[in-house]
Amino acid sequence: MRKIIVLSMITLDGVMQAPGRSKEDRSEGFNYGGWTAPYGDEVYGKVVQKELKQPADYLLGRQTFEIWEDYWPEHADFWPGINDGTKYVFSKTRKKSDWKNSVFINSVADIRKLKKSKGSDIQVWGSSKIVQLLLKNDLVDELRLKIHPLTLGKGKKLFDKGTIPAAFTLTVSIVTPKGVIIVHYKRAGKVKTGTVGS
């Protein structure tokens, strides 16, 4: 069974929209594109480079795919595996793309079938609606988060409507010199409760 791994750059208030470039995603009047730029440093860069070198396939929402489709085929020198990995695109409207290794799916059943198939782990970058769909259906095996020291107040969020109660175990924890908290969590069963101090 393949793991589904969500990789996300988020703010302290959970915003994940348009982390990389000013015009990346201006939907709903979002004016803070590129908000991660001031927080880059050597530690952060090494973590990102390690992530980009991992063999993986990708699960993307249509909007994220269309942003990537216009950018990454011409910038594979920075992300060598992005053209070779299979891009599974969740869309009710699109059926094809000229970007090689792009496959279109349109249901949770398709994602479950994909998860049970053989192959590389499946990474989810961006794609807030897909992340929320996965969390709602308990299909996330790992969260790899880069939590940036700022709040934006508005924008697409990592955790929004439909997230189920779920426990996770910390497997990696790094704090960069510029204050970004990089954490990896793996799914760890049901939420446990108790009484503090007893």
From the helix content, strand content and strand pairing, which structural class follows? alpha/beta
What is the share of helical residues? Answer: 10-25%
Terminal-residue CA separation: 40 Å
Shape: globular
Number of strands: 8
DSSP helix count?
Answer: 4
Sheet with most strands: strand arrangement: 4-3-2-5-1-6-8-7
Major pleated sheet:
8 strands, mixed
Portion in strands:
15-25%
* String of helices and strands: EHEHEEHEHEEE
List segments where confidence is low: pLDDT < 50 over at least 5 consecutive residues. none
Rg from C-alpha positions?
Answer: 17 Å
**Residue-averaged pLDDT:** 93
Structural write-up:
The chain has 198 residues and is an alpha/beta fold. Helix content is 20%, strand content 24%. The chain is built from four helices and eight strands; from the N terminus they run βαβαββαβαβββ. The chain has an eight-stranded mixed beta sheet. A hairpin with a 5-residue loop joins strand 7 (168-175) and strand 8. The termini are far apart. 27% of the residues are buried. The model has no long low-confidence stretch (mean pLDDT 93).
Summarize the structure.
This protein is α/β, with parallel strands linked by helices. It has helices spanning 42-52, 62-71, 108-116, 128-136, and strands at residues 4-11, 57-61, 87-90, 102-105, 122-125, 142-148, 168-175, 181-187.
